[in-house]
Amino acid sequence: MEQGWLHGEGFLLCLILYLLLQGRGDTFTINCSGFDQHGVDPAAFQAAFARKAFRPATNVSIPICVNISFTLSAILEVDAQLQLMTSFLWLNMIWYNPFITWNPEECGGIRKLGMATENLWLPDIFIEELMDTDQTPPGLMAYINSNGHIKYSKPMRVTSICNLDIFYFPFDEQNCTLTFSSFVYTVEKMVLGMEQDVQEILETSQNIIWNKGEWVLQGIHQMMKMTAGTNGYDQIVFYVAIRRRPTLYVINLLVPSSFLVAIDALSFYLPAESENRASFKMTLLLGYNVFLLMMNDLLPSSSTSLISVYFALCLSLMVLSLLETIFITYLLHLATTQPPPMPRWLHSLLLHCTSPRTCCPAVPWKGNMDLAHLPGVKEPMELVGKVPHPRETELNGCPGSARNQQEDKAQKLHLVRLWVRLSHMMDTLLFRLYLLFMATSVVTVIILWNT
């Protein structure tokens, strides 16, 4: 409703100004008799061409109305670091010149002429967000109707400043502004109107825009601001909404990173006492760092994005997994040589987490580690089989020593089992943390892609 009201108000204002000037237009009708026999006579327009340095108005107190529209044909580049958007558009302007009118019946039925813009007065419409010089090519043509209406279209490569928010990269949407205004003429000398409705501008732009680029045109919204006063300038502000295509970045960034994290999670199936587990995780960590260095050019460097947080979390998990593997390896080595006594609070926590009544996470690899693989550890049956007979102990003169030795070894074996169970629990918790992180990442990507 607001856009339609603004468009209707601009059109009504320009219509009123046109009617005010139309009454004086017949005085300046060009004599074009003989155009049908000898073609267009340049001398007939010399009086009008001589006025090109002045605003085409028969009454200096009445502002001239310029209707504008544009067609966005390409989004060439969006620079997140410099906060710039480079686009290509065609700017269309229509205004009334009362000094260039003729009667088509007297001019061989000619109702429209094309003239070089160097002979005409042109509105000084510019884009306020423009960060580069206007590179409009010279030698363009403007088309003039017999009733004095002039239409001028010029191509523009616009490098405009835009407040970019790349937190959701590569699923980000940007909203850039294009403000059209006059550089010289205030609102008392020139007012701006709309040649087309903003919906027509959007439909035309979407039909001809280059759709195979990185950015997709989502919408164009328009708001008119009129500033009255001697120092006020009429403005028309357009909001251009664009969306990035995320497929390239998902394939090149998210998928390889997810594969490396998944492989690191599968490494928990390797036995904790294996010497290859730490070296395998170290290789994955080095490979992930090389991957980040190679893909650094694709990441935005102006501010923190969600994908940068994701990569930092992946790297942190892999480092934490490597440190946990080193700690477990040291713990098992210590437990098999001289197992330290387990603190009471840790023993209670271990019994609580591994109790069948609690929801204890299942170990990703086999639940009971084969203790025979650990050096210095013997099974209880093996220890019992080597216990000497009481008569042998009496003959050896060491009564009770075998029982004490058996109890010491059984206690040592019990401590080894507790420390091994603790390593199982640590592996399981970290493995579940990996699964939770990967599931959260997948759900987040799906939500951002669909919205």
Automatic annotation (TrEMBL):
Membrane topology annotation: Multi-pass membrane protein
Start and end residues of each Neurotransmitter-gated ion-channel transmembrane domain: 253-359
Alphabetical list of Pfam families matching this protein: Neur_chan_LBD, Neur_chan_memb
Cross-referenced Gene3D superfamilies: Neurotransmitter-gated ion-channel ligand-binding domain, Neurotransmitter-gated ion-channel transmembrane domain
Keyword Magnesium in record: no
Matches recorded under SUPFAM superfamilies: Neurotransmitter-gated ion-channel transmembrane pore (SSF90112), Nicotinic receptor ligand binding domain-like (SSF63712)
Keywords in alphabetical order: Cell membrane, Ion channel, Ion transport, Ligand-gated ion channel, Membrane, Postsynaptic cell membrane, Receptor, Signal, Synapse, Transmembrane, Transmembrane helix, Transport
Residue ranges annotated for the Neurotransmitter-gated ion-channel ligand-binding domain, each copy included: 52-246
Catalytic reactions on record: K(+)(in) = K(+)(out); Na(+)(in) = Na(+)(out); Ca(2+)(in) = Ca(2+)(out)
Ranges that cross the membrane: 248-270, 282-301, 307-332, 429-449
Cellular component terms per the entry's GO annotation: postsynaptic membrane
Function: Forms serotonin (5-hydroxytryptamine/5-HT3)-activated cation-selective channel complexes, which when activated cause fast, depolarizing responses in neurons.
Protein family: Belongs to the ligand-gated ion channel (TC 1.A.9) family.
Protein name from the UniProt record: 5-hydroxytryptamine receptor 3C
Organism per entry: Bos mutus
